[in-house]
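Reminder to self: tokens first, then the designed residues, so the page reads top to bottom the way the pipeline ran.
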């Protein structure tokens, strides 16, 4: 996941109350984020008036309060947000007994255009003009608030499950020194584009291709027959061994540097066979590395079930 984190806490002691403020671009996933935080035990308020943020934070810091974790979504839907938020957030940051975090969600113009097209929701700044104009205007207006953020998360290629993993880290006190590194191995197909969140990238298109085996073509890298085909080639085993060895060396250094998220991309042509198998094999080969556990996500595997996917494969798409 493409995330920037500012380590502004230093060696601060653990505080009792936690406030997560989620803001960012319309369509970037704020509603999914607030639902994920609610599932993780936060008291959540969506579209809270900006001037009421300190009041809400005060409930969490009040002696005897049962509310210790609060999450708030604020954005351009609220009239005073752009003019008042910076001052209000600085005030909240000074409140005793409160650990406040500002998370800014964003996405590429292409991803936002696709989401607004799919949901048919109007952009709040584009009621009488093209959606892209509204997106760009909002991005410009939010630049100052984005610069204040403790974390900036690009959701262009994230699923709702990825967002939940991100905010699960915050539920455990995310952002504090010593938070476990969240490492994800993402399989993908180059023909669908490189994952924008990838920190490390491995191209496995040099490996034997199950696509050219008619009996394996309709399967995926998770299938035992594909796995047996891949393991039968010494080059595959050597590739897994060498990539795993490199990651065993690198990952502890990323963790020591304080990186919150590490995404390792494994790419083949279509994201169905080779990259899927290698991603799964790496997770098994690595196990925990320096206390870091690896998660696997197959970004393009679902595309095999899309209408017309079989036809595209018959026309010569290689995986």
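Designed residues (319 positions):
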């Amino acid at each position: 996941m493409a995330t920037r984190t500012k380590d502004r806490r230093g060696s601060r002691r653990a505080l009792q109350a936690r406030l997560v403020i989620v803001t960012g671009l319309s369509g970037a996933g704020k509603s999914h984020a607030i639902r994920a935080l609610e599932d993780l035990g936060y008291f959540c308020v969506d579209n809270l008036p900006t001037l009421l943020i300190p009041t809400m934070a005060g409930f969490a810091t009040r002696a005897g309060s049962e509310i210790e974790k609060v999450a708030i979504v604020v954005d351009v839907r609220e009239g005073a947000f752009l003019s008042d938020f910076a001052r209000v957030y600085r005030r909240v940051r000074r409140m005793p007994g409160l650990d406040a975090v500002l998370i800014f969600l964003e996405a590429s113009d292409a991803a936002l255009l696709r989401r607004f097209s799919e949901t048919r929701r109007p952009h709040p700044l584009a009621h009488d003009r093209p959606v892209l104009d509204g997106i760009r205007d909002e991005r410009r207006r939010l630049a100052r608030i984005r610069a204040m953020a403790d974390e900036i998360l690009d959701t262009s290629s994230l699923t709702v499950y990825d967002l939940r993993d991100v905010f699960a880290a915050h539920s455990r006190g995310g952002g504090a020194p010593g938070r476990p590194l969240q490492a994800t191995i993402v399989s993908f197909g180059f023909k669908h584009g490189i994952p924008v969140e990838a920190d490390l990238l491995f191209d496995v298109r040099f490996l034997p291709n199950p696509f050219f085996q008619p009996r394996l073509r309709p399967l995926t890298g998770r299938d035992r027959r594909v796995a047996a085909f891949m393991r039968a080639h010494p080059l595959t085993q050597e590739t897994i061994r060498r990539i795993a060895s490199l990651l065993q060396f690198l990952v502890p250094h990323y963790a020591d540097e304080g990186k919150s998220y590490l995404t390792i991309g494994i790419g083949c042509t279509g994201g169905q066979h080779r990259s899927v198998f290698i991603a799964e094999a790496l997770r098994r080969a690595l196990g925990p590395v320096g206390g870091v556990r690896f998660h696997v996500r197959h970004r393009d595997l679902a595309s095999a079930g899309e209408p017309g996917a079989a036809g595209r494969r018959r026309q010569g798409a290689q995986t």
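The beta strands are 2-5, 17-24, 43-46, 69-73, 98-106, 151-154, 182-189, 200-203, 261-268, 294-298.
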